[in-house]
Amino acid sequence: MSDAGSEDEYEGDRDGEGQRHGFGKARLPNGDTYEGEYEHGLRSGHGTYRFKNGALYTGNYLQNKKHGKGVFFYPDGSKYAGDWVHDQRQGYGEYLYANGDTYTGEWANNKRHGQGTYVYKETGSKYVGCWVNGIQNGPAELIHLNHRFKGRFLNGKPLGRGKFIFDIGCEQHGEYIQPVQEKEEEDEDEPPLPLEPIWKVSEITKLTPWSPHDEELLVSREAAGAVAEEEEVPSAIGLFWKHLETPCFDYGDHCFRGLISSDVRGFLCFILFFL
């Protein structure tokens, strides 16, 4: 949302050449208003810009652009408070979304980029980790009420080695594998539906220290000569992992999946690890 424009009504200080300089108030032809500091005809310093549609920005300017620290209130009720560079959200800041979700962390070119934490109000789940151009990408931890997942994300989805950690003291190690898309002759002219990564369990243990950066150590524990398959980029992107399920517990021919209680999960950990 740009606040660039040429004011046709102005009241305030001017420099020796008659340009707006110092503190002033202005009204733009489109109905927007600005009150704050000017330097040689341009908005520079601290000011408050009110948009006709209800949006509002209060913070620092540099040569008519939002630059430095500032807070932007959007018409839908969302709000960003943090760093700006040449009218772009860039640096560190917090965004409160209209649905109550929040993101706190690094930004670049108006997108979540770098290290950041996204909290989903609906479920209380929290993503803590890396972002690239607004998408979950890199080492991260997805924290739920009674369990969490540590691993890597690619294009908004978990992919590769990781582990689920449960609050009753056990872990499920494994990896997310991207299924191979199979083509059907009758559907050659239609784009295939994206397949979701599949969780493959390798072992269940007691709590152990681990991070996504320890992949080399985990690989060394596998049989000599084993070759890992090349990771494929998932075709679907987004933040759908806020409802990530508890992984499947394989026990004989049975599979326990979903949001199960702590007592049941504790029993499953017991029969899977201690028996």
TrEMBL record:
InterPro entries: MORN. Gene3D superfamilies: Histone H3 K4-specific methyltransferase SET7/9 N-terminal domain. It comes from the Eukaryota. It is found in: Cytoplasm, Cytoskeleton, Flagellum axoneme. One of its GO terms (cellular component) is radial spoke head 3. Residues 1-12 have a biased composition (Acidic residues). Residues 1-39 are annotated as: Disordered. One of its GO terms (biological process) is axoneme assembly. Keywords: Cell projection, Cilium, Cytoplasm, Cytoskeleton, Flagellum, Meiosis, Repeat. SMART domains: MORN. The keyword Repeat applies. SUPFAM superfamilies: Histone H3 K4-specific methyltransferase SET7/9 N-terminal domain (SSF82185). The keyword Repeat applies. Functions as part of axonemal radial spoke complexes that play an important part in the motility of sperm and cilia. This is Radial spoke head 1 homolog.
